[in-house]
# Entry
Amino acid sequence: MTDQTILEFEYLSENQKLSANKIRNLGDIPGVVYGAGEDTRKISLQAKDLRKALELPSIFSQIIVLQQNEESHKVILKEVQINPSNDKPVHVDFMRVSSKTKITMQVPIKFINEDACFGVKNEGGMISKNKNDIELTCLAENLPEFIEVDVAELKLGNSIMQTGLALPEGVDLSNTLLTGQDQPIVSCSTTRASLEIEEDVEGEISEAALGEEDPKEDSSDADKDTEEENS
# Structure
C-alpha cells in the first residue's frame, strides 16, 4: 500500500464573498466535503497540493485525509472538475467516510506475470486486457488500492472472468456486476502473426494437394490420346 494522502484544507465561511475565480486566483481550489451525517461544507485546498495528489494513479481508490490543524476527516475523492483549456482542476468534491461507511468504487486492476503467461510463452498467444478497473463494494476501511490479477497460468483461448477474481476479505463485486452478465477481465488470444502463419501453411498444403492431382490428370489425358490413336 502507498502512503496515505493528506491534504491541508480550510473551511470557507458562508459570509465570505469570495467567488470561485477569486479563490483560484489566490492559488487555491474550491471544493465541498459532505456525507457521514454531517453538513455539506465549502472548503479550499492549495492548488499545488491537489495537483500533486491527482498525479497518483490510485487517488480515486484510496482513503484521503483532509486536515486542518487538529481537525481531520477521512474522505474519498468523488469528483474533480477540470478546465479543458489547460487540464487544471477548478473544483473538487469529497465524501466523508467512517469505518461503517459502505462504498462502491472503481478500483484499478494490476496484471502480474504477463511475461510468464503460459499461453504466450508456450502457445504463441497474446494477452488481451478487457478491463483496467473493476467496480467493487466494501466498507471504506477495506477499500483496496488495486486488485491483482495473475495471468501466469492463463492458456490460449481461455479468459479470467469478473467472478473469478481473487478479492480481499470483505470486498465484493458491485451489485451492478453481480446482477449483470459475467465479463472477461483478460484473455489469451491468437496473435495476428500466428494467424498469418496458419493461413500460409494452409495455402501451401492446398497448393501441394493441387500439384499432386495434376499428374493424374495428365496421365488420364495421355491414356485417352493413346486409346484414340489405337482406334
Notes: The chain has a mean pLDDT of 85.
